[in-house]
Amino acid sequence: MNAPDNFPTPVIDALNAPYWDALGQGHLSYQHCKTCSNSWLPARSECPGCLDTNWCWQTASGDARLVSWVVYHRAFDPAFQERLPYNVAIVELDEGPRLISNIVGLDAKQDIGSQLRIDQPLQLAIRHEHGVAIPAFVIKAVQ
Amino acid sequence: MRGQVVIAGIGQTEFGNLPGRSTYSLNAEAVRHALNDAGIPKDRVDGLFVKFPTSRFEFMYGQKLAETLGIVPRIGGVWDQGGAANASMVGYAAMAIAAGQCDVAVVTFADNPKSGTRQAYDKAWGHDQIYGWFGIPAGYAMIAQRHMGQYGTTAEQLGAISVTCRTNGARNPRAQLQKPLTLADYMDSPMIVEPLRRDDCCLVSDGGAAVVLTSAEFARREGLDKTVPILGFGQGQTSWEVAQRPDLTTTAAKASAETAFAMAGLTPRDVDVAQIYDCFTITALMSLEDYGFCKPGQGGDFCASGAIALDGELPINTSGGLLSETGMPGMQLIIEGVRQMRGDAANQVSGARTCAISNQGGVMHTHATLILGQ
Q1: In 3D, which of B120, B125, B127 has the Cα closest to residue A1?
Q2: Which of A4-8, A119-123, B269-273 has the lowest mean pLDDT?
Q3: Percentage of residues in chain B with pLDDT exceeding 70?
Q4: Does the distance separating the beta carbons of A102 and B132 come in below 8 Å?
Q5: B285-333 pLDDT tens trace
Q6: What are the Thiolase C-terminal domain coordinates in residue numbering (chain B) (predicted)?
Q7: What is the average pLDDT across B105-125?
Q8: What is the arithmetic mean of pLDDT over B199-226?
Q9: Which of B197, B231, B226 is CA-nearest to residue B90?
Q10: What angle do CA B342, B259, B274 make, to 5 degrees?
Q11: Nearest chain B CA: its distance from A136 CA (Å)
Q12: Residue B228's CB: how many other CB atoms inside 10 A?
């Protein structure tokens, strides 16, 4: 389902609706298997660890680390042309699940890559994109 | 299985921009050349193994191609492993021959993404489109970034792979891109998805290529004289999408190579020349590590040292690879491996007796290895 201006917003279905609803209420959630204690994203109907369906949604702490990132210099979809250059990151939550996201709050005057390093601690910062609440992350301030 | 099955013939079309040619026509031309090269009449072919055109999936493509070729195979079909499929089908065809399921197998691939559609390579990644996550190059860029952060791999080291392949391609009259590249040219090429530049990315190409397999015994009986024995083959699959993959800097290329080396009774030190899948420079660099040609994390130093050049300790991609000969997913590497073992390659490595070949697909999801001898 695309937004009126053709922006690629997610298709929400019965399986993933709790994930998107929780984000709308300010929480990032993930699936957790009550049989084998595996945790994962994105939404699946069976636990990829033990194939059981005995799972529940749990709320993430928001603490995470940066696994890797890229910076787009070419738009693969016209909706992102005006944002170039922009970053996309792989983020690992402290609870284990990994997801694709964006790092926000960077200094726009500096090179994106110079502000990021692998395994850097991150903190959840939910933002709104075309009416959809989505997870983003900021670099966690050093304590 | 070592040496029981041989590659008896190879064939290819022109590589490049071939408007108006269907994938059926490109496959038919490649198979015609491969059968002529082998000296085996078409009516002896009873196995047909096909990778469907990457740019356009078509239901029952293998049967439609069999009809085009006028072949009624006993065994065959279409195999879906992305870019690993051509080398893995050579393995399946070898097993089919050894198990008495067929006598002569054709393995063939053709595609026309340059004159047709390249949409398959720009695909969006499901829900993650909302983050701007699109395209195959970005998946490899994620892996490259992690490798750089973890091991200190540099752009110049990735560039050494591009320069090597382009140098070799410039000396191959069959190559689509016969223009050498300097490291300065590479560094100046525009970023596509950072850290990958344009010249880290393979060509987009139309073309077809095919090989003919049979048993060593059939080859002896029929007096076939250009055969190259398959000493080993293997596969490995990483499966997870890049975002979900627990370790980004190693892949099942390792398992694939170990299986192939074990079958061949050889080690990486025995390999004289290698054709290493280079859809992106990082793919070749990590495959060299996973195969054991250098240690994990040392692929950058290994490539920048000159070891992979034609006069180095392990010349790779002697016909130019995906970066220079043709962007075709893998079959050209198998054909070049056969030429090196026959001793008639455009950039022949003198005295080469063993060749390792890697094919891989998806974003390092699938991997297949072949080891050829003499």
Answers
A1: B127
A2: A4-8
A3: 98
A4: yes
A5: 999 999 999 999 999 999 999 999 999 999 999 999 999 999 999 999 9
A6: 234-373
A7: 84
A8: 97
A9: B231
A10: 35
A11: 9
A12: 21
Whether the predicted model's global pTM rises above the 0.90 cut:
yes
Chain centroid to CA B89: how far? 12
Nearest to B133 among A11, A88, A119 (CB): A88
At residue A3, does pLDDT exceed 60?
A: no
The mean predicted confidence, pLDDT, of chain B is: 96
Which residue's structure tokens are 């970023």? B191
B134 has a pLDDT exceeding 70:
yes
ipTM attached to this prediction: 0.95
Tokens of B314: 């392990």
In whole angstroms, how far apart are CA B277 and each of A114, B75, B233? 31, 28, 15
Question: B172 lies in a domain?
Answer: no
> Residue B241 region, left (φ>0) first, then alpha (ψ -120 to 50), else beta?
beta
Residue numbers of the domain that contains B18: 5-116+203-372
User: Which residue do the tokens 């540099």 mark?
Assistant: B154
Which domain does A67 fall in, by range?
17-139
| Residue whose token pair is 């990483």 | B238
User: Is residue B159 included in any domain, yes or no?
Assistant: no
Chain A nearest-CA distance from B127, in A, is: 5
C-alpha–C-alpha distance, residues A20 and B63, integer Å? 44
Residue of A nearest to B145 (CA): A68
The identity of residue B367, as a single letter, is: H
Residue B93 in domain: yes
Distance, C-alpha A8 to centroid of its chain: 15
Q: Is residue A3 part of a domain?
A: no
Which helix (H) or strand (E) segment is A99 a member of?
strand A98-101
Domain count, chain B: 1
